[in-house]
Amino acid sequence: MTFSAVDSWWWPFLFILIAGWLATDAWRFLGVYLGGRLRDDAPVLVLVRTIATALVAAVIGNLIIFPSGELADTPLWLRLGAALIGFAAFLLTGQRMIVGIVVAEALLLFGIYSL
């Protein structure tokens, strides 16, 4: 089966759904199976956690520095300022993630609609 094997409007959506499910869920099931047998401080899990954190940080940095869509029309100082103030709010409230996200989003939206 290929992406263009069936000439129906729904086929690309079904293909992406199945291919995405197969590509990710096998690793999830394997992680759950093996994760129950590893200690939380095992070197392999520390490495996996480090890589996952680095990937999330890279995606966030990419969205701030090289945005697309509506964010591309906002100045860099606004995106950086909202991220930094949101991070400060996260730290000041005892590392409550929702507070950091809400503060950063509110500042970004305020900046977008007031410019």
TrEMBL record:
Entry keyword Membrane: yes
Lineage: superkingdom: Bacteria
Protein name listed in UniProt: AzlD domain-containing protein
Keyword tags: Membrane, Transmembrane, Transmembrane helix
Species of the source: Tianweitania sediminis
InterPro entries reported for this sequence: Brnchd-chn_aa_trnsp_AzlD
Transmembrane annotation, as ranges: 12-30, 42-64
Pfam families: AzlD (PF05437)
